[in-house]
Sequence to fold (188 residues):
Amino acid sequence: MRLDYHEVSPEVTSAIAGLQRIVAKARLEPELLELVKLRSSQLNGCAWCLDMHTKDARAIGMSEQRLYLASAWREAPCYSDRERAALAWTEALTLLAETGAPDDVYADAARVFSPQELVALTVAIIEINSWNRLNVGFRTPVGDYVSRRRPAHAESVGAGAAASEGEASASGEVAVGAEPVAVGHGVG
Fold:
């Protein structure tokens, strides 16, 4: 590890975790959000975030097939129209310098997401790209993340929350609604 960014500047992790609170209000599908985080992390080569989000996706009930095929989603029939639009938008914004966020990709996303959902999806992409850059840039050690997530139906009744909203748990996670948000070492 080059440095522990949370120790040096805990307000950075708090600020990025605040983006998750915005995303949570839109109530986008948990598996869709994990696919977005997974795909962005693949594109950015963020091992810490890949470790976290594959474990989180499995914990909420995503099939192994959907996890394995995420990098080849265009050829795989196991993704919904919303997931395909979200993955395309994720790639367009993650690779912004190369893509320029094409109009056709935006139009496909706008067809399946409400304006509020599209803003939330975009904020989710901004959030994961931020974590990717912190964890890759500072070489956060990978491998020790343990998911506290539960299947979506359990999270909807609060079973997946790490603590009361905004309160850090012993593991450094902050609960945001039904979605725990990891803060501290290697957030992604």
Remarks:
- The longest strand covers residues 173-176.
- The two ends are 15 Å apart (CA to CA).
- Residues 156-185 have pLDDT under 50 and may be disordered.
